Amino acid sequence: MGAKMTEQLLGEPAAGRRTKILSHLDGRTPGRSLPGALYTDPDVFTSEVELLWRRRWLFVGTVAEVPEPGDYVTFDVAGSSVLVIRDDDEQVRAFHNVCRHRGSRLVTSGNGSVGNLVCGYHSWTYATDGSLRYAPQLSPEIDTTCLGLRPVALREVGGLLFCSLAAEPDGDIDLVADQISGYLTPHRLDRAKVAAQVDLVEEANWKLVMENNRECYHCEGGHPELTCTFFPTWGLREDQVPDRLRPDHDRYLLAEADLMRRCDELGIPHRLIEDLVDRPLGFRIQREPLDGVGESFSADGARLVGRLLGDLDDPQLGRCTFHSQPNAWVHLLADHVVTFAVTPISPDRTLVRSTWLVHEDAVEGVDYDLETLTAVWRATNEQDATFVRNTQLGVSDPAYVPGPYNDAERNVDDFVRWYESQIRSEAQEKGGAR
Fold first, then answer.
1. Cα angle, residue 278 at apex, residues 275 and 281 outer, rounded to 5°
2. pLDDT, tens only, 111-154
3. pTM value > 0.85
4. Domains of the chain, earliest start first
5. Burial class (CB in 10 A: 0-12, 13-18, 19+), 179
């Protein structure tokens, strides 16, 4: 078969899928949720993998997950497995988790620690920097320097790790890093450790998972544990606050003023920076007050960990919340950090990985109780899983008609606008736009 014919056979289905996803986007009414097919169609999902997940910077974890040389974690997305490892020189690197011999998965566990990376199939052995060290019975005429593990672009931002599967990653990560690093560094994730990590597979499209996180419209009735410390008026303008929530909002304003004063005294940035629609790595970051004592995610807002992060000595720093598109949100508090990484599995299944970090010297059972530390977000995640599962069922129903967003859902609308913009720009680059 000729190369041209092969290219046509491979290219036409992809072009057809791109045409389909663009057609669905053409049918969207601005200010309303997406058409149902964009949450359910397998061809749409395949196009998203091609146009988005293999092209954008993805949150994969934190430096605290690979604290020592030889420590590694894997991140599986869009059919690719990425191996993130700290090498013998203390540098965190990322590689495709694929042996350079005949393609076997190099490591099969989600995390661990190694001296060398040894393929379980034919014992090809790689150093932690990815170079090939040993290949039994390989001809001496073969240049082994060309057979190291294939690198994946990796960028650390204040202890958060992002990777890109693109052959030529965009430089947006550096521009974002310049704006958010100051918010992250006081928490010193390089001096933190993993207290717990929970994987939850939610039965919904990845966009529904992200949309659900981008609003608290559902929080008042849906998250009783979370709203012990989350103010129920989050996302509402002053003129939108209903009378029944006015006491909560007045309390929020007082807590906000006190938090801003504390942050200014400590030289900790707190203002809102939001660029959610127009850039490849859409993001939002802000330090906001917590209700009650204002220290942590607990029933009364009091701290959950006796040892504060980094060199912080004031526990009443609320929450610094960072989220990025397509797949992350992070809450940084004085006593702990909780990160969330979203990865699509199929059109209607999504993995949400939640990771709790505490100070590297904090002792479980002495400085914190693990059950109490994780209680609020374990409950909240389970509640959200139910919400998005029911929504997936609804958008799959022929009776579904996209409904209008309200002002409290403006970040949802921003996410959807970002999604449409990124899909269109990538499809146009690949020749699929009309």
1. 65
2. 999 999 999 999 999 999 999 999 999 998 999 999 999 999 99
3. yes
4. 58-156 (2.102.10.10), 180-411 (3.90.380.10)
5. middle
